[in-house]
Amino acid sequence: MSAVTQPLVPVLALILAGFLLQRTNFLAPAFWPSAEKLTYFLLMPAMLIHNLAGKKIGDLPWLKILVTVEGGILLSAVLVLLWWASNRDLDGPAFTSLFQGGVRFNTFVALALAENLYGADGLFVAALGAGFMILLINVLCVTAFSLTVTGGARPTPGKIALDLLRNPLIIGCAVGVGLNATGLKLPVALDGILSLSGRAAFPLGLLAVGAAYRAGNLVQHRKTLVVSSVIQFVIKPAAAWWLATVLGLTGMAVCVAILLFSVPTAPTAYILSRQMGGDHESMASIITVQTCLSFLTLPVTLWLMQGLPHG
Asked: Domain coordinates of the chain in residue numbers?
């Protein structure tokens, strides 16, 4: 199981480091908001452009992969909305944490696992699926914030469109996908700058998550923790398997699709929550708890996947 747990260790280690740095006041309190802003507006978009611009689809069953991952994301979003409709005691900011906790996925963990388990081919398929997912997820999440975190003002289509158009994560996805579709290549120097900048996105984001984490919040946010985790670790992997089977995906592509839907939610969710007025404390708790839970759920998921033909 070392291939399963190994990619999770640095994630938890950085969250713990951020928690300790904040608690010991090793860094000035003003550092953390600045770190969040830098990650959100610069480092994450750089990482998205670099990762999405250079992928080559080739002979992969990209349409089946596309429908599988997008269908799974839309299903999880609908389930969160249906649950919220029957539990309206949850306010808008708390709902956005539930939404992101049930819809987003940790790209770092998913890609690292795919490479460890299935080699370069697995990494390529996972990167393709992740590229399809990232833009839709960010559109859905930004729309959820625009509709529910309004400060008392009724959201308008213009406001929602403006939030989408100026969101740096969506801009990063759009630029990366656009470069890929047109076949344009980034200059080597610029691509190197984006690659180097993007490498700092996850470490800095995870440190910020740890700095915001409060153990006492677990009981307070237990409802969103339980619901988002059930969707993330039970419903989404099952939905990915069902969609992949119905669409006729075979071999390693099925396993990678399930893997993309079996990892914890993304640290990016916390950055977005801070920047768009969500319940960031609830979001930090969900990210940390789901990352811890994945040490138990991922080995179980992979054990169940052993019965699938890898082709």
From this structure: 2-305
Please, what CATH class does the domain formed by 2-305 belong to? mainly alpha
Task: List, in sequence order, the alpha helices (H) in 6-106.
Answer: 8-23, 31-38, 44-53, 62-85, 92-103
Q: CA 70 → CA 111, 175, 254, 257, 289, distances in Å?
A: 17, 19, 14, 11, 25
Task: Give the amino acid at 179.
Answer: L
- For residues 166 and 190, the model is more confident at 190
Helices (H) and strands (E) in the chain, counts: 17, 0
Predicted local distance difference test score (pLDDT) of residue 212 = 76
Confidence of residue 176 (pLDDT cuts 50, 70, 90): confident
Give the confidence band of 82 by pLDDT, cuts at 50, 70, 90: very high
> Which of the pair, 173 or 72, is modelled with greater confidence?
72
User: From CA 241, how far away is CA 224, in angstroms rounded?
Assistant: 25
Q: Which residues contact 273 (CB under 8 A, 6 or more apart)?
A: 93, 96, 97, 100, 279, 280, 283
Q: Among 105, 110, 135, which Cα is nearest to 122's? A: 110
Burial of 28 (0-12, 13-18, 19+ CB in 10 A): exposed
Q: Are 290 and 131 in contact (CB under 8 A)?
A: no
223's CB contacts (< 8 A; 6+ apart) are 87, 90
pLDDT for the residue numbered 88: 76
The upper half-sphere exposure of residue 221, i.e. CA atoms within 13 Å in the direction of its Cβ, equals 29
At 36, the amino acid letter reads: E
Residues 115-158 have pLDDT tens digits of: 888 887 887 788 888 888 888 898 899 888 888 886 545 566 77
String of b and e for 220-250 (b: at least 16 CB within 10 Å)?
ebeebbebbbebbbebbbbbbbebbeebebe
The helix or strand, by DSSP H or E, that contains position 83, with its residue range, turns out to be helix 62-85
